[in-house]
Design brief:
Elements (H helix, E strand, L loop, with lengths): L8 E6 L8 H9 L3 H9 L3 E3 L2 E2 L11 E6 L15 E5 L3 E6 L16 H8 L23 E7 L2 H12 L4 E9 L6 E5 L2 E4 L2 E7 L7 E9 L3 E8 L6 H9 L27 E9 L6 E5 L4 H11 L10 H4 L10
């Protein structure tokens, strides 16, 4: 659920106010990397302040401009693979795919093959490499066990325009989530900063010094032990929906990482799956300016879980129970 930080590209960090933050920590927070990685870039002169090289301990002040040259990863060559990939739209500028749960988005240690990027390479055709070959075309990401709509850029021009639109919050992304327990009200706004969990770098957490993150949750249905929610991302941090719901004490059903993995069999949820689905994607086409609006019906495994918690077998036969529950009727919701 996050924007993809560019690699092999330049990032500018304007400093708007004096602070007591070291240069390496400022870079780490802004680019969501470890402090060690940021300090290495500073030592390699990949970080300049007002065009000058500074030490990691330097504390930027108001008016300073910090420029970071992020090196492209050494990585491995992306292996083209003939893999199933549900493409719901494509033209010469972009693709929209409906990612299956269990599929990793891009190659990384432990997942060098079988990813969305491997499948895209296997299909052929151009892909933007602004984010590097291993993240070719990716405008944003989805977690491995999250299903739903994913936006891919074919050209660098489209990638830049869509990336800017994502930063300006002009790309609408809506997720269906099933959360344990019940929210305090039908709408809850969570505005809590996120960063790597200092106790476990494999997880994210609410951290006071983290990057700003805001999610709006709207309850669509309340069942005995769970709420069905529409999640609206105002920002796109790693694991944002999952961490914010866990912070509320209502983790995503099936989320083993953030406390929602118990009771899986009671709700008929398959192993390794959590109930989070990117159901809607709306944006302006980077070339034509046309409004693009895509919907992904709730997958069969999540329909089975919804049917179980609602005690309603008819949900299994519905074309898309999200439509029936008003998921796409947002009205004036921001």
């Amino acid at each position: 659920m996050s924007a993809v930080p560019g690699t092999g590209t330049s990032h500018t960090i304007p400093v708007e106010a004096d602070s007591d933050v070291r240069l390496d920590l400022l870079v780490a927070r802004h680019l969501d990397v470890s402090r060690t990685q940021a300090a290495t870039w500073v030592a390699e002169a990949r970080v300049l302040v007002n065009g000058r090289r500074e030490k990691a301990a330097y504390k930027p002040t108001a008016g300073d401009v910090v420029v970071v040259e992020v090196p492209a990863p050494a990585g491995r060559a992306v292996i083209p693979q003939d893999l199933p990939l549900a493409v719901v739209y494509e033209d010469e500028e972009l693709l929209v795919i409906d990612k299956a749960a269990g599929m990793v988005v891009h190659p990384a240690p432990g997942h060098w093959e079988g990813t969305v990027v491997n499948a895209l390479a296997g299909r052929g055709g151009p892909l933007s490499e602004l984010g590097g070959a291993e993240r070719a075309g990716l405008v944003h990401r989805l977690d491995k066990d999250t299903s739903g709509l994913l936006l891919i850029a074919r050209t660098e021009r489209a990638h830049r325009i869509l990336g800017d639109a994502l930063t300006r919050r002009e790309i609408v992304r809506r997720y269906a989530a099933l959360a344990w327990g019940h929210l305090e009200s039908d709408r809850v706004d969570v505005d809590q900063p996120l960063a790597r969990d200092p106790r476990n770098r494999q997880r994210m957490a609410v951290v006071r010094t983290g990057k700003a993150a805001k999610t709006t949750f709207v309850r669509l249905a309340r069942y005995d032990s769970v709420d069905l929610l529409r999640a609206h991302l105002h920002t796109g941090r790693t694991h944002q929906i999952r961490v914010h719901l866990s912070h509320l004490g209502h983790p995503v059903v099936g989320d083993d990482v953030y406390g929602g993995g118990g009771g899986r069999r009671l709700v008929k949820l398959p192993a390794g799956r959590h109930f989070l689905h990117a159901a809607r994607l709306r944006f302006r086409h980077p070339a034509s300016g046309a409004d693009m609006d895509f919907r992904s019906p709730l997958p069969a495994d999540l329909k089975a879980t919804l049917s179980a918690v609602a005690r309603d077998p008819s949900i299994l036969d519905a074309a898309d129970p999200l439509d029936d529950l008003g998921f796409f009727n947002e009205g004036a919701e921001p």
